[in-house]
Amino acid sequence: MSNPITNRPGFVSKALRAPKMPAFTLYGSRGSTNTDRVRLTLAEGGFTDYEFVLLNLQKGEQKVSPSRELPNLNNINNPTQSPSNLTRHPFGKIPAITFPSGFTLYESRAICTYLARKYSFPLLPPSPATGIEHDLEATALFDQAQSVETHYFAEPAGKISFELFAKKFMGLPADKAVVAQALKAVEGFFDVAERMLQEREYMAGREFTVVDVFYIPLVQRLFACGYGDVIQSRGAVNAWWERCVNRPAIRKMLAEDGGVAVAAAAAKRV
After folding, report:
1. Any idea what DSSP says for residue 3?
2. DSSP 3-state assignment of 50?
3. CB neighbours (10 Å) of residue 152?
């Protein structure tokens, strides 16, 4: 007698079908501003087809060398038992992404830009390949805005984050002189940004891009460290910040991470 269940069309194929592999794996850590940069980009793109593997930074899992690992093939979800993070990021940092093909990429901004381009997230300027002068200029201004964020904002803001946030978890005292100097640089940056944002809505122009995403984690950290006033005291900067954190996908991720209490809820309402 035939089995009326297993003979149903499609039953066997569904039962034997292997689980779908994620498009790629993101290696990072909760609370890492660099990792959050990538996660925010993915959230904006509405992309969820990836695996997020957490590395324990306090245990130094991001710096584990192959010789120190003890492979356990029965525990593939344990990051300390997977290939060394140094094979993904030679400097022992996070984040990094790996694809089933073997392609690996590290550095958060490079990852964000690559993912936005690969999956057509609306977070990049028009392709300069068109040869149209307007598109070439838009791309140049976008590249300029990326450089500004990296060198004039992220460098000093990152020092504040390290001294007042990271060192706290490491049980180390903050260097107040470093914080004071970095805060002065951040305030100087936002003085310039205040003038720029009076003429445009976002850091790279009229549209929200990955450049704006790049700022969000460290601005959050400034709020967490008690320096939210550098944003709130500047009208155009604060308006830009509100536009960013009130975007649905970003607001949802921040809320899920508990970051909304530091970011969106702390932002001054106009």
Report:
1. -
2. strand
3. 17
Contacts of 215 (CB under 8 A, 6+ apart): 149, 153, 203, 244
Report pLDDT digits (tens) over 101-137.
999 999 999 999 999 999 999 999 987 666 667 788 8
pTM of the model: 0.82
SS (H, E, C) 211-251: HHHHHHHHHHHHHHCCCCHHHHCCHHHHHHHHHHHCCHHHH
The helix (H) or strand (E) run that includes residue 189 is: helix 176-196
Q: List pLDDT tens digits, range 166-186.
A: 999 888 999 999 999 999 999
Q: What residues contact 10, with CB distance under 8 A and at least 6 apart? A: none
Q: Are 94 and 81 in contact (CB under 8 A)?
A: no
The 10 Å Cβ neighbour count of residue 92 is 15
Q: Which two tokens stand for residue 3?
A: 């089995």
SS3 call for 209: coil
12-30 confidence digits (pLDDT tens)? 344 445 567 899 999 999 8
- Domains, the chain, ranges and CATH? 12-118 (3.40.30.10), 128-261 (1.20.1050.10)
Contacts of 155 (CB under 8 A, 6+ apart): 185
> Got the DSSP string for 20-36?
PPPSEEEEE-TT-HHHH
Tokens of 181: 């100097």
DSSP 3-state of 143? helix
For 11, the 3-state DSSP assignment is: helix
β-sheet bridge partners, residue 52: 26
Rg over CA atoms, the chain: 22
Give me the mean pLDDT over the 46-53 stretch: 97
